[in-house]
Amino acid sequence: MIRSDLPVLLARPPALVVGRTGEERSFDCRGILRPRTLALLATALVVSMIAAEAQSQGAASRPGILATLWLWTPVVFGGFLFNLLTSVLSMALGTAAGLLLGLALISLVRPVSRSAWYVTQFFRNAPWLVLLFYCMLLLPFEVLLFGQTVSLPAWLKASVGLALPVMANVAEIVRGGVQSIPDTQWQAADSLAFTRLQTIRMIILPQCLKRMTPPWMNLYAILTMATTLISIVGVQEGLTLTRAALVADGRVELFVPMYLMLLMFFFLYCYPIARWTIALERRFNVKA
Amino acid sequence: MAGFEDFFRWLNDHYGINFSFFYDSFDRDRLLLGIWTTVELSCLCLVLSLAIGVVGAWLQGSRFTLLRRVMQGYIQFFRNTPPLVQLTFFYFAVGGLLPRVADASGQAVPLVSSFGWAALSFSFFAGAFNVEIFRAGIEAVPRTTIEAAESLGYGRLKAYVYIVLPLAFRISLPALNNNLVNLVKTTTLAYAIGVPELLYAAAQIWSEQFNVWEMMNVLLVTYVALVGVLVWGMARCERALRIPGYDT
Q1: Which residues in A lie closer than 8 A to residue B89 (C-beta atoms)?
Q2: Scanning A43, A159, B45, B202, which has the fewest C-beta atoms within 10 Å of its C-beta?
Protein backbone atom coordinates (compact mmCIF):
# COMPACT_ATOMS: atom_id res chain seq x y z
CA MET A 1 0.00 0.00 0.00
CA ILE A 2 1.39 3.31 -1.01
CA ARG A 3 1.77 5.82 1.74
CA SER A 4 1.10 8.93 -0.25
CA ASP A 5 0.48 11.98 1.79
CA LEU A 6 -0.98 14.06 -0.94
CA PRO A 7 -4.43 14.81 0.31
CA VAL A 8 -5.91 15.66 -3.01
CA LEU A 9 -7.32 12.48 -4.34
CA LEU A 10 -8.31 9.72 -2.06
CA ALA A 11 -9.15 6.53 -3.77
CA ARG A 12 -12.75 5.56 -3.52
CA PRO A 13 -13.38 2.34 -1.74
CA PRO A 14 -16.37 0.49 -3.13
CA ALA A 15 -19.14 2.99 -2.74
CA LEU A 16 -20.89 2.47 0.52
CA VAL A 17 -23.05 5.31 1.48
CA VAL A 18 -24.75 6.32 4.63
CA GLY A 19 -28.04 6.01 2.93
CA ARG A 20 -31.42 6.06 4.38
CA THR A 21 -32.85 2.62 4.68
CA GLY A 22 -31.78 0.01 2.25
CA GLU A 23 -30.59 1.15 -1.10
CA GLU A 24 -26.93 1.75 -1.70
CA ARG A 25 -26.05 4.79 -3.62
CA SER A 26 -22.94 4.90 -5.67
CA PHE A 27 -21.04 8.11 -6.06
CA ASP A 28 -19.31 7.33 -9.27
CA CYS A 29 -19.32 10.85 -10.51
CA ARG A 30 -17.42 10.08 -13.69
CA GLY A 31 -20.55 9.95 -15.78
CA ILE A 32 -22.48 12.70 -14.03
CA LEU A 33 -19.85 15.26 -13.62
CA ARG A 34 -17.86 15.97 -16.66
CA PRO A 35 -20.58 17.73 -18.68
CA ARG A 36 -22.47 19.04 -15.65
CA THR A 37 -19.64 20.93 -14.04
CA LEU A 38 -18.69 22.39 -17.35
CA ALA A 39 -22.26 23.47 -17.90
CA LEU A 40 -22.28 25.04 -14.43
CA LEU A 41 -19.08 26.96 -15.12
CA ALA A 42 -20.28 28.11 -18.50
CA THR A 43 -23.55 29.23 -16.90
CA ALA A 44 -21.65 31.20 -14.27
CA LEU A 45 -19.64 32.88 -16.99
CA VAL A 46 -22.72 33.73 -19.05
CA VAL A 47 -24.64 34.99 -16.02
CA SER A 48 -21.72 37.15 -14.95
CA MET A 49 -21.51 38.55 -18.48
CA ILE A 50 -25.21 39.34 -18.60
CA ALA A 51 -24.98 41.00 -15.21
CA ALA A 52 -21.99 42.97 -16.40
CA GLU A 53 -23.83 43.93 -19.56
CA ALA A 54 -26.73 45.21 -17.48
CA GLN A 55 -24.34 47.22 -15.31
CA SER A 56 -22.69 48.86 -18.26
CA GLN A 57 -25.94 50.03 -19.87
CA GLY A 58 -25.08 53.65 -19.19
CA ALA A 59 -22.10 53.78 -21.51
CA ALA A 60 -23.55 52.71 -24.81
CA SER A 61 -20.65 53.89 -26.89
CA ARG A 62 -18.27 51.21 -25.59
CA PRO A 63 -18.08 47.72 -27.03
CA GLY A 64 -20.11 44.99 -25.33
CA ILE A 65 -18.74 42.84 -22.56
CA LEU A 66 -18.53 39.78 -24.75
CA ALA A 67 -16.53 41.63 -27.38
CA THR A 68 -14.17 43.03 -24.76
CA LEU A 69 -13.72 39.63 -23.20
CA TRP A 70 -12.97 38.13 -26.60
CA LEU A 71 -10.49 40.91 -27.24
CA TRP A 72 -8.52 40.04 -24.11
CA THR A 73 -8.78 36.27 -24.42
CA PRO A 74 -5.49 35.83 -26.36
CA VAL A 75 -3.63 37.83 -23.71
CA VAL A 76 -5.00 35.84 -20.80
CA PHE A 77 -4.56 32.56 -22.65
CA GLY A 78 -0.97 33.45 -23.53
CA GLY A 79 -0.28 34.09 -19.86
CA PHE A 80 -1.92 30.81 -18.99
CA LEU A 81 0.33 29.02 -21.50
CA PHE A 82 3.31 30.52 -19.73
CA ASN A 83 1.98 29.02 -16.48
CA LEU A 84 1.92 25.64 -18.16
CA LEU A 85 5.46 26.10 -19.45
CA THR A 86 6.68 26.95 -15.95
CA SER A 87 4.87 23.94 -14.53
CA VAL A 88 6.52 21.59 -17.03
CA LEU A 89 9.96 23.03 -16.36
CA SER A 90 9.56 22.90 -12.57
CA MET A 91 8.17 19.39 -12.73
CA ALA A 92 11.10 18.19 -14.81
CA LEU A 93 13.64 19.79 -12.46
CA GLY A 94 11.80 18.65 -9.35
CA THR A 95 11.32 15.08 -10.57
CA ALA A 96 14.98 14.66 -11.50
CA ALA A 97 16.15 16.02 -8.15
CA GLY A 98 13.40 14.21 -6.26
CA LEU A 99 14.33 10.86 -7.74
CA LEU A 100 17.87 11.25 -6.45
CA LEU A 101 16.65 12.46 -3.07
CA GLY A 102 14.20 9.56 -2.88
CA LEU A 103 16.98 7.08 -3.56
CA ALA A 104 19.05 8.79 -0.86
CA LEU A 105 16.07 8.34 1.50
CA ILE A 106 16.18 4.56 1.10
CA SER A 107 19.96 4.43 1.25
CA LEU A 108 21.47 1.92 3.65
CA VAL A 109 24.17 4.41 4.64
CA ARG A 110 22.67 5.92 7.75
CA PRO A 111 24.03 9.49 7.50
CA VAL A 112 22.84 9.73 3.89
CA SER A 113 19.29 8.60 4.57
CA ARG A 114 19.13 10.69 7.74
CA SER A 115 20.19 13.92 6.06
CA ALA A 116 17.95 13.19 3.06
CA TRP A 117 15.08 12.78 5.52
CA TYR A 118 15.76 16.20 7.04
CA VAL A 119 15.95 17.83 3.62
CA THR A 120 12.69 16.20 2.55
CA GLN A 121 10.83 17.18 5.70
CA PHE A 122 12.13 20.71 5.54
CA PHE A 123 11.08 21.37 1.97
CA ARG A 124 7.74 19.66 2.42
CA ASN A 125 6.82 21.64 5.51
CA ALA A 126 7.84 25.10 4.37
CA PRO A 127 5.17 27.06 2.48
CA TRP A 128 5.66 27.17 -1.30
CA LEU A 129 5.45 30.93 -1.37
CA VAL A 130 8.20 31.32 1.23
CA LEU A 131 10.47 28.97 -0.73
CA LEU A 132 9.70 30.98 -3.84
CA PHE A 133 10.68 34.22 -2.13
CA TYR A 134 13.79 32.49 -0.86
CA CYS A 135 14.91 31.59 -4.37
CA MET A 136 13.90 34.88 -5.94
CA LEU A 137 15.71 37.04 -3.42
CA LEU A 138 18.71 34.96 -2.49
CA LEU A 139 19.78 33.48 -5.81
CA PRO A 140 22.07 35.85 -7.72
CA PHE A 141 20.73 37.41 -10.91
CA GLU A 142 23.82 36.30 -12.76
CA VAL A 143 26.47 33.68 -12.20
CA LEU A 144 30.01 33.22 -13.39
CA LEU A 145 30.17 29.92 -15.24
CA PHE A 146 33.50 28.87 -16.79
CA GLY A 147 34.55 32.49 -17.04
CA GLN A 148 31.28 33.43 -18.74
CA THR A 149 28.65 35.58 -17.11
CA VAL A 150 25.35 33.79 -17.40
CA SER A 151 22.30 35.74 -16.35
CA LEU A 152 19.57 33.99 -14.41
CA PRO A 153 16.24 35.40 -15.56
CA ALA A 154 13.44 35.73 -13.01
CA TRP A 155 11.32 32.98 -14.55
CA LEU A 156 14.17 30.51 -14.22
CA LYS A 157 14.69 31.37 -10.57
CA ALA A 158 10.96 31.06 -9.99
CA SER A 159 10.96 27.63 -11.63
CA VAL A 160 13.76 26.53 -9.34
CA GLY A 161 11.82 27.91 -6.38
CA LEU A 162 8.78 25.85 -7.35
CA ALA A 163 10.92 22.79 -8.08
CA LEU A 164 12.19 22.62 -4.47
CA PRO A 165 8.90 21.55 -2.84
CA VAL A 166 8.21 19.33 -5.86
CA MET A 167 11.54 17.64 -5.25
CA ALA A 168 10.68 16.86 -1.63
CA ASN A 169 7.25 15.51 -2.57
CA VAL A 170 8.64 13.38 -5.39
CA ALA A 171 11.20 11.96 -2.96
CA GLU A 172 8.38 10.90 -0.65
CA ILE A 173 6.51 9.34 -3.56
CA VAL A 174 9.62 7.37 -4.53
CA ARG A 175 10.14 6.22 -0.96
CA GLY A 176 6.51 5.20 -0.61
CA GLY A 177 6.62 3.37 -3.93
CA VAL A 178 9.77 1.45 -3.08
CA GLN A 179 8.42 0.50 0.34
CA SER A 180 5.22 -0.78 -1.22
CA ILE A 181 7.13 -3.52 -3.05
CA PRO A 182 7.01 -6.79 -1.09
CA ASP A 183 10.22 -7.79 0.70
CA THR A 184 10.21 -11.09 -1.15
CA GLN A 185 11.18 -9.24 -4.33
CA TRP A 186 14.33 -8.00 -2.62
CA GLN A 187 15.10 -11.43 -1.27
CA ALA A 188 14.57 -13.07 -4.65
CA ALA A 189 16.91 -10.54 -6.23
CA ASP A 190 19.45 -11.20 -3.49
CA SER A 191 19.34 -14.90 -4.11
CA LEU A 192 19.93 -14.28 -7.81
CA ALA A 193 23.08 -12.35 -6.86
CA PHE A 194 21.89 -8.93 -8.00
CA THR A 195 23.73 -6.08 -6.35
CA ARG A 196 21.66 -3.53 -4.49
CA LEU A 197 21.98 -0.99 -7.28
CA GLN A 198 20.99 -3.57 -9.88
CA THR A 199 18.04 -4.65 -7.77
CA ILE A 200 16.77 -1.10 -7.50
CA ARG A 201 17.31 -0.30 -11.14
CA MET A 202 16.14 -3.53 -12.77
CA ILE A 203 13.61 -4.96 -10.33
CA ILE A 204 12.24 -2.45 -7.85
CA LEU A 205 11.90 0.79 -9.81
CA PRO A 206 10.14 -0.71 -12.85
CA GLN A 207 7.52 -2.14 -10.51
CA CYS A 208 7.11 1.10 -8.55
CA LEU A 209 6.64 3.15 -11.67
CA LYS A 210 3.01 2.14 -12.00
CA ARG A 211 2.24 2.93 -8.40
CA MET A 212 4.08 6.21 -8.44
CA THR A 213 2.33 7.57 -11.51
CA PRO A 214 -1.01 8.57 -9.91
CA PRO A 215 0.47 10.54 -6.97
CA TRP A 216 3.00 12.05 -9.34
CA MET A 217 0.25 13.30 -11.63
CA ASN A 218 -1.55 14.59 -8.61
CA LEU A 219 1.52 16.55 -7.65
CA TYR A 220 1.71 17.93 -11.16
CA ALA A 221 -1.85 19.24 -10.90
CA ILE A 222 -0.99 20.90 -7.58
CA LEU A 223 2.13 22.42 -9.11
CA THR A 224 0.21 23.76 -12.09
CA MET A 225 -2.13 25.56 -9.73
CA ALA A 226 0.82 26.80 -7.69
CA THR A 227 2.46 28.42 -10.72
CA THR A 228 0.20 31.44 -10.24
CA LEU A 229 2.31 32.19 -7.14
CA ILE A 230 5.10 33.49 -9.35
CA SER A 231 2.95 36.52 -10.11
CA ILE A 232 3.53 37.61 -6.48
CA VAL A 233 7.29 37.64 -6.94
CA GLY A 234 6.98 39.66 -10.13
CA VAL A 235 7.11 37.20 -13.00
CA GLN A 236 4.54 37.87 -15.68
CA GLU A 237 2.06 35.04 -16.08
CA GLY A 238 -1.66 34.44 -16.43
CA LEU A 239 -2.79 36.21 -13.29
CA THR A 240 -0.51 39.21 -13.86
CA LEU A 241 -1.71 39.61 -17.42
CA THR A 242 -5.35 39.27 -16.40
CA ARG A 243 -4.86 42.00 -13.84
CA ALA A 244 -3.00 44.15 -16.35
CA ALA A 245 -5.78 43.69 -18.88
CA LEU A 246 -8.35 44.70 -16.28
CA VAL A 247 -6.38 47.81 -15.42
CA ALA A 248 -5.91 48.68 -19.09
CA ASP A 249 -9.60 48.32 -19.82
CA GLY A 250 -10.60 50.01 -16.59
CA ARG A 251 -14.11 48.60 -16.34
CA VAL A 252 -15.27 47.32 -12.98
CA GLU A 253 -17.98 45.13 -14.49
CA LEU A 254 -15.31 43.15 -16.34
CA PHE A 255 -13.70 41.86 -13.13
CA VAL A 256 -15.94 38.87 -12.47
CA PRO A 257 -16.05 37.46 -16.04
CA MET A 258 -12.31 37.96 -16.59
CA TYR A 259 -11.24 36.16 -13.44
CA LEU A 260 -13.82 33.45 -14.11
CA MET A 261 -12.29 32.98 -17.53
CA LEU A 262 -8.84 32.45 -16.01
CA LEU A 263 -10.28 30.08 -13.42
CA MET A 264 -11.95 28.16 -16.23
CA PHE A 265 -8.68 27.75 -18.13
CA PHE A 266 -7.10 26.19 -15.06
CA PHE A 267 -10.13 24.04 -14.41
CA LEU A 268 -10.23 22.74 -17.97
CA TYR A 269 -6.58 21.75 -17.66
CA CYS A 270 -6.51 20.32 -14.13
CA TYR A 271 -9.84 18.57 -13.95
CA PRO A 272 -9.10 16.02 -16.71
CA ILE A 273 -5.78 15.29 -15.01
CA ALA A 274 -7.62 14.61 -11.77
CA ARG A 275 -10.10 12.29 -13.50
CA TRP A 276 -7.32 10.51 -15.31
CA THR A 277 -5.42 10.04 -12.04
CA ILE A 278 -8.43 8.41 -10.43
CA ALA A 279 -8.88 6.16 -13.45
CA LEU A 280 -5.23 5.11 -13.30
CA GLU A 281 -5.46 4.48 -9.57
CA ARG A 282 -8.42 2.22 -10.21
CA ARG A 283 -6.65 0.40 -12.99
CA PHE A 284 -3.44 -0.18 -11.04
CA ASN A 285 -5.53 -0.85 -7.96
CA VAL A 286 -3.03 1.04 -5.88
CA LYS A 287 -5.07 1.70 -2.80
CA ALA A 288 -7.53 -1.13 -2.86
CA MET B 1 16.78 41.54 28.74
CA ALA B 2 18.95 44.51 27.90
CA GLY B 3 21.91 42.18 27.48
CA PHE B 4 19.88 40.10 25.06
CA GLU B 5 19.07 43.14 22.94
CA ASP B 6 22.65 44.34 23.13
CA PHE B 7 23.91 41.00 21.90
CA PHE B 8 21.89 41.23 18.68
CA ARG B 9 22.84 44.86 18.22
CA TRP B 10 26.46 43.84 18.63
CA LEU B 11 25.94 40.97 16.16
CA ASN B 12 24.62 43.46 13.62
CA ASP B 13 27.44 45.98 14.19
CA HIS B 14 30.29 43.48 14.08
CA TYR B 15 29.13 40.75 11.76
CA GLY B 16 26.32 42.39 9.79
CA ILE B 17 23.86 39.73 10.86
CA ASN B 18 20.79 41.83 11.43
CA PHE B 19 17.97 40.30 13.46
CA SER B 20 16.40 43.72 13.85
CA PHE B 21 13.24 42.47 15.57
CA PHE B 22 15.25 41.37 18.59
CA TYR B 23 16.34 44.88 19.48
CA ASP B 24 13.99 47.17 17.58
CA SER B 25 10.60 47.26 19.32
CA PHE B 26 8.82 48.53 16.19
CA ASP B 27 9.99 45.59 14.11
CA ARG B 28 9.29 43.22 16.98
CA ASP B 29 5.69 44.38 17.26
CA ARG B 30 5.24 44.07 13.51
CA LEU B 31 6.59 40.54 13.46
CA LEU B 32 4.55 39.50 16.50
CA LEU B 33 1.43 40.96 14.89
CA GLY B 34 2.28 38.99 11.76
CA ILE B 35 2.68 35.73 13.68
CA TRP B 36 -0.54 36.44 15.57
CA THR B 37 -2.44 37.19 12.35
CA THR B 38 -1.17 33.98 10.75
CA VAL B 39 -2.20 31.96 13.81
CA GLU B 40 -5.59 33.67 13.91
CA LEU B 41 -6.18 33.14 10.18
CA SER B 42 -5.08 29.52 10.38
CA CYS B 43 -7.33 28.76 13.36
CA LEU B 44 -10.32 30.46 11.80
CA CYS B 45 -9.85 28.63 8.49
CA LEU B 46 -9.28 25.36 10.32
CA VAL B 47 -12.59 25.59 12.15
CA LEU B 48 -14.55 26.86 9.14
CA SER B 49 -13.11 24.29 6.75
CA LEU B 50 -13.82 21.47 9.19
CA ALA B 51 -17.40 22.68 9.48
CA ILE B 52 -17.69 22.79 5.68
CA GLY B 53 -16.23 19.29 5.53
CA VAL B 54 -18.65 17.80 8.05
CA VAL B 55 -21.75 19.46 6.61
CA GLY B 56 -20.64 18.84 3.02
CA ALA B 57 -19.99 15.16 3.59
CA TRP B 58 -23.46 14.87 5.07
CA LEU B 59 -25.03 16.69 2.13
CA GLN B 60 -23.21 14.35 -0.25
CA GLY B 61 -25.17 11.46 1.18
CA SER B 62 -28.40 13.38 0.66
CA ARG B 63 -31.24 11.87 -1.32
CA PHE B 64 -31.68 14.99 -3.44
CA THR B 65 -29.74 14.56 -6.65
CA LEU B 66 -29.50 18.28 -7.23
CA LEU B 67 -27.94 18.89 -3.82
CA ARG B 68 -25.36 16.19 -4.41
CA ARG B 69 -24.46 17.60 -7.79
CA VAL B 70 -24.09 21.10 -6.44
CA MET B 71 -21.72 19.74 -3.78
CA GLN B 72 -19.74 17.86 -6.43
CA GLY B 73 -19.53 21.00 -8.52
CA TYR B 74 -18.29 23.01 -5.54
CA ILE B 75 -15.66 20.39 -4.66
CA GLN B 76 -14.34 19.94 -8.16
CA PHE B 77 -14.25 23.65 -8.84
CA PHE B 78 -12.28 24.52 -5.73
CA ARG B 79 -9.94 21.58 -6.03
CA ASN B 80 -9.01 22.17 -9.64
CA THR B 81 -8.40 25.91 -9.72
CA PRO B 82 -5.46 27.79 -8.20
CA PRO B 83 -6.15 29.09 -4.66
CA LEU B 84 -4.39 32.35 -5.49
CA VAL B 85 -6.76 33.04 -8.38
CA GLN B 86 -9.70 32.10 -6.16
CA LEU B 87 -8.51 34.59 -3.58
CA THR B 88 -8.01 37.28 -6.21
CA PHE B 89 -11.42 36.54 -7.65
CA PHE B 90 -13.09 36.85 -4.26
CA TYR B 91 -11.21 39.92 -3.13
CA PHE B 92 -11.14 42.00 -6.30
CA ALA B 93 -14.10 40.76 -8.32
CA VAL B 94 -16.71 39.73 -5.75
CA GLY B 95 -15.47 42.20 -3.14
CA GLY B 96 -15.74 45.00 -5.67
CA LEU B 97 -19.42 44.27 -6.24
CA LEU B 98 -20.36 44.39 -2.57
CA PRO B 99 -21.53 47.70 -1.09
CA ARG B 100 -19.38 49.71 1.25
CA VAL B 101 -20.53 50.29 4.80
CA ALA B 102 -19.69 52.98 7.33
CA ASP B 103 -17.46 51.90 10.19
CA ALA B 104 -17.44 53.31 13.73
CA SER B 105 -15.71 56.53 12.70
CA GLY B 106 -18.06 57.05 9.75
CA GLN B 107 -15.58 56.08 7.05
CA ALA B 108 -16.76 53.94 4.16
CA VAL B 109 -15.02 50.57 4.38
CA PRO B 110 -15.59 47.39 2.38
CA LEU B 111 -18.22 45.05 3.77
CA VAL B 112 -15.68 42.23 4.09
CA SER B 113 -12.06 43.09 4.91
CA SER B 114 -9.09 41.52 3.18
CA PHE B 115 -8.62 39.33 6.25
CA GLY B 116 -12.25 38.25 5.95
CA TRP B 117 -11.87 37.38 2.27
CA ALA B 118 -8.70 35.45 2.94
CA ALA B 119 -10.43 33.48 5.72
CA LEU B 120 -13.47 32.77 3.52
CA SER B 121 -11.48 31.86 0.44
CA PHE B 122 -9.05 29.50 2.20
CA SER B 123 -11.90 27.91 4.14
CA PHE B 124 -13.75 27.14 0.93
CA PHE B 125 -10.54 25.82 -0.61
CA ALA B 126 -9.57 23.56 2.30
CA GLY B 127 -13.24 22.71 2.93
CA ALA B 128 -13.54 21.19 -0.54
CA PHE B 129 -10.70 18.81 0.32
CA ASN B 130 -12.15 18.10 3.76
CA VAL B 131 -15.49 17.05 2.26
CA GLU B 132 -13.71 14.44 0.17
CA ILE B 133 -11.63 13.29 3.11
CA PHE B 134 -14.65 12.90 5.37
CA ARG B 135 -16.57 11.19 2.59
CA ALA B 136 -13.84 8.61 2.21
CA GLY B 137 -13.90 8.16 6.00
CA ILE B 138 -17.67 7.74 6.03
CA GLU B 139 -17.51 5.19 3.25
CA ALA B 140 -15.03 3.20 5.31
CA VAL B 141 -17.47 2.87 8.22
CA PRO B 142 -18.81 -0.68 8.04
CA ARG B 143 -22.32 -0.97 6.65
CA THR B 144 -23.23 -3.28 9.52
CA THR B 145 -22.53 -0.53 12.04
CA ILE B 146 -25.02 1.73 10.29
CA GLU B 147 -27.55 -1.06 10.09
CA ALA B 148 -27.12 -1.67 13.80
CA ALA B 149 -27.77 2.01 14.44
CA GLU B 150 -30.85 1.89 12.23
CA SER B 151 -32.20 -1.12 14.04
CA LEU B 152 -31.84 0.80 17.28
CA GLY B 153 -34.10 3.47 15.82
CA TYR B 154 -31.56 6.11 14.84
CA GLY B 155 -32.64 8.40 12.01
CA ARG B 156 -30.24 9.49 9.26
CA LEU B 157 -29.08 12.64 11.03
CA LYS B 158 -28.81 11.03 14.47
CA ALA B 159 -26.92 8.04 13.09
CA TYR B 160 -24.60 10.44 11.25
CA VAL B 161 -23.85 12.56 14.31
CA TYR B 162 -23.59 9.85 16.95
CA ILE B 163 -22.38 6.75 15.10
CA VAL B 164 -20.89 7.45 11.70
CA LEU B 165 -19.07 10.73 12.23
CA PRO B 166 -17.12 9.71 15.36
CA LEU B 167 -15.84 6.62 13.54
CA ALA B 168 -15.30 8.37 10.21
CA PHE B 169 -13.42 11.18 11.92
CA ARG B 170 -10.92 8.74 13.38
CA ILE B 171 -10.45 7.03 10.03
CA SER B 172 -9.91 10.33 8.21
CA LEU B 173 -7.47 11.81 10.73
CA PRO B 174 -4.23 11.05 8.82
CA ALA B 175 -5.53 12.57 5.58
CA LEU B 176 -7.05 15.45 7.50
CA ASN B 177 -3.69 16.04 9.13
CA ASN B 178 -2.05 16.59 5.75
CA ASN B 179 -4.77 18.87 4.52
CA LEU B 180 -4.64 21.06 7.61
CA VAL B 181 -0.87 21.37 7.29
CA ASN B 182 -1.43 22.47 3.71
CA LEU B 183 -3.99 24.98 4.93
CA VAL B 184 -1.50 26.62 7.29
CA LYS B 185 0.96 26.89 4.43
CA THR B 186 -1.72 28.29 2.14
CA THR B 187 -2.30 31.23 4.50
CA THR B 188 0.87 32.81 3.10
CA LEU B 189 -1.14 33.61 -0.05
CA ALA B 190 -2.99 36.26 1.94
CA TYR B 191 0.16 38.32 1.35
CA ALA B 192 -1.16 38.96 -2.16
CA ILE B 193 -4.15 40.95 -0.89
CA GLY B 194 -2.26 42.76 1.85
CA VAL B 195 -3.32 40.88 4.96
CA PRO B 196 -0.63 41.69 7.54
CA GLU B 197 0.30 38.08 8.20
CA LEU B 198 3.75 36.64 8.85
CA LEU B 199 5.10 36.78 5.31
CA TYR B 200 3.79 40.32 4.85
CA ALA B 201 5.36 41.49 8.11
CA ALA B 202 8.67 39.89 7.18
CA ALA B 203 8.59 41.49 3.73
CA GLN B 204 7.99 44.88 5.33
CA ILE B 205 10.93 44.40 7.67
CA TRP B 206 13.34 43.25 4.99
CA SER B 207 12.41 46.03 2.64
CA GLU B 208 13.33 48.56 5.33
CA GLN B 209 16.28 46.85 7.01
CA PHE B 210 17.69 45.08 3.94
CA ASN B 211 18.09 41.91 5.98
CA VAL B 212 16.51 39.56 3.45
CA TRP B 213 18.70 36.60 4.30
CA GLU B 214 18.01 36.77 8.04
CA MET B 215 14.29 37.33 7.67
CA MET B 216 13.98 34.52 5.13
CA ASN B 217 15.48 32.06 7.54
CA VAL B 218 13.36 33.39 10.39
CA LEU B 219 10.32 32.90 8.16
CA LEU B 220 11.20 29.34 7.23
CA VAL B 221 11.96 28.38 10.82
CA THR B 222 8.76 30.00 12.09
CA TYR B 223 6.58 28.21 9.56
CA VAL B 224 8.25 24.90 10.20
CA ALA B 225 7.66 25.50 13.91
CA LEU B 226 4.00 26.44 13.38
CA VAL B 227 3.42 23.35 11.25
CA GLY B 228 5.31 21.31 13.83
CA VAL B 229 2.95 22.49 16.59
CA LEU B 230 -0.04 21.57 14.45
CA VAL B 231 1.35 18.12 13.61
CA TRP B 232 2.13 17.53 17.27
CA GLY B 233 -1.36 18.57 18.29
CA MET B 234 -2.94 16.33 15.65
CA ALA B 235 -0.79 13.39 16.74
CA ARG B 236 -1.95 13.89 20.32
CA CYS B 237 -5.51 14.14 19.11
CA GLU B 238 -5.07 10.91 17.16
CA ARG B 239 -3.72 9.14 20.20
CA ALA B 240 -6.42 10.47 22.49
CA LEU B 241 -9.18 9.40 20.10
CA ARG B 242 -7.82 5.92 19.49
CA ILE B 243 -10.28 3.20 20.34
CA PRO B 244 -8.44 0.20 21.77
CA GLY B 245 -8.89 -2.74 19.48
CA TYR B 246 -10.38 -0.67 16.67
CA ASP B 247 -7.45 -0.30 14.33
CA THR B 248 -7.98 0.66 10.78
Answers
A1: 256, 259-260, 263
A2: A43
